[in-house]
């Protein structure tokens, strides 16, 4: 390669590496702000501020959804399978909201460790399946569970 | 390899080869894209949780995929501009930047339309969505900077530097869903793993992506040819070409 071109190429490489390092350091410093939500473990560990608008995200725990028959109030636990946080919300939930599904709730953590949400967003995963395949998988899982004599586990959504 | 690279320095050679490639790119691209989209929209099975609304993936993912890879291509061309001072590389950057901006807009728009029924919101400031918005601003910046500087050479260099600086955003978009907590789900397609999608859903998606790639190639060739004609307007081969009535 021509020496001038070699020199230019070095400059270009330095430019890209320099910018990458700068951006990497900035995003590393801001990582807590870039994270859209706090995990239940972070909240349990006291990392999340109390009485400030934050987001909490995780899975809706199975059999934890309690709907108030009189109003639109719902109560559920959000878990990351190591700890969980109790969320209460008044309003209409998105269609994809279900036990075992991911959610991101926006609201405030009150003094008693309850999370009072004013917005609940559903999160969906990267797995796309037609309904029949899902049913077949569930059937297989149930069969395996009953053969091994264990508890029946119903899977997400239904 | 190097021979082709050096030939690419000649706008005339490029004009000829592009003319021969373009019909293939156009027709195979149209066939693949239309077949993929129709298969996806009408014949692929509905999704277990999202029902039919997931079908917007057949537009959203190809657009987002292309938006990112067009930027990577622009960055490669920017290196060529800065190191080898090849004019055609700058022609490429200037010609495809608007296409990239449009694709990014399409990805953001279809994402918002998809987000409303599934997540419950049009927009959240999560890392994936925000970095994608930055990508659109980078495209817009590259277009504006290129137009703002009159002198061809300095405009080429300025845009190339901007495009190169912006390339750090690409890995951020790609890995945002893994590095940070986001509302956006992780990638369904990974190079090393089987797609996390039923095959009757991802085959049409792949067709749509490949088709859109070819359509992009066609449009890029067309725009580059136009740009080459404008820039080389005073050379002999362009005058001869025009006297022949534009036939190649």
Automatic annotation (TrEMBL), chain A:
Protein function: Heme chaperone required for the biogenesis of c-type cytochromes. Transiently binds heme delivered by CcmC and transfers the heme to apo-cytochromes in a process facilitated by CcmF and CcmH.
HAMAP family: CcmE
Protein name: Cytochrome c-type biogenesis protein CcmE
Organism: Marinobacter confluentis
Similarity comment: family membership: Belongs to the CcmE/CycJ family.
Extracellular face residues: 30-158
InterPro entries given in the database record: CcmE (IPR004329), CcmE-like_sf (IPR036127), NA-bd_OB-fold (IPR012340)
GO molecular function: heme binding; metal ion binding
Keyword Protein transport annotated: no
Keywords, sorted A to Z: Cell inner membrane, Cell membrane, Cytochrome c-type biogenesis, Heme, Iron, Membrane, Metal-binding, Signal-anchor, Transmembrane, Transmembrane helix
NCBIfam families in the cross-refs: PRK13254.1-1, PRK13254.1-3, PRK13254.1-5
Gene name of the record: ccmE
Membrane topology: Single-pass type II membrane protein
A GO term from the CC aspect: plasma membrane
Superkingdom classification of source: Bacteria
From TrEMBL, chain B:
Lineage: superkingdom: Bacteria
Chief localisation class: membrane
Protein name: Heme exporter protein C
Job of this protein: Required for the export of heme to the periplasm for the biogenesis of c-type cytochromes.
Annotated TM spans: 21-44, 56-84, 96-115, 127-146, 158-177, 201-222
Protein keywords: Cell inner membrane, Cell membrane, Cytochrome c-type biogenesis, Membrane, Transmembrane, Transmembrane helix, Transport
Annotated InterPro entries: Cyt_c_assembly, Cyt_c_biogenesis_CcmC, Cyt_c_biogenesis_CcsA/CcmC
Annotated Gene Ontology cellular component terms: plasma membrane
Subcellular location: Cell inner membrane; Membrane
Domain Cytochrome c assembly protein, residue spans: 25-184
GO biological process, any: cytochrome complex assembly
Membrane topology: Multi-pass membrane protein
Sequence similarity: Belongs to the CcmC/CycZ/HelC family.
GO molecular function, one term: heme transmembrane transporter activity
Listed PANTHER family: CYTOCHROME B_B6 PROTEIN-RELATED, HEME EXPORTER PROTEIN C
